[in-house]
Predict the 3D structure of the following.
Amino acid sequence: MEASFLIPMIVTVVFLLLLLLFTVHNRSWYRAAACESVLKGSGWHSVTEDPYAAAWERMEERVREQPVPGMRPDISVQWTGGETVVYVNGQIFRSFGGKWFLLEIRENKERVHPAEQLRERWKG
């Protein structure tokens, strides 16, 4: 085979593998961040802290810590009295356009009330 054909093919494959690596890492990073934020907002750590603020602060902190290149996605945190929902939407590499490298994550968790759960178990 000709080197003029082989070298560009190898470089292209290496580039695509690196792009895939960054994409998979970013997707798993943001999913873990959403899960942590939802747990923080569900009250597992502190019943007195504002769940919305706790979830939002944790999500912002994790997004700032993101070490791998890529675009910052849109983040939305909702708290509806008994449930915390975190949405992460965006495109990791916008320069490629289209529907490639889309990021759509939704994590939710109901607020934990340990005292009430223990009282219910002790009654029965």
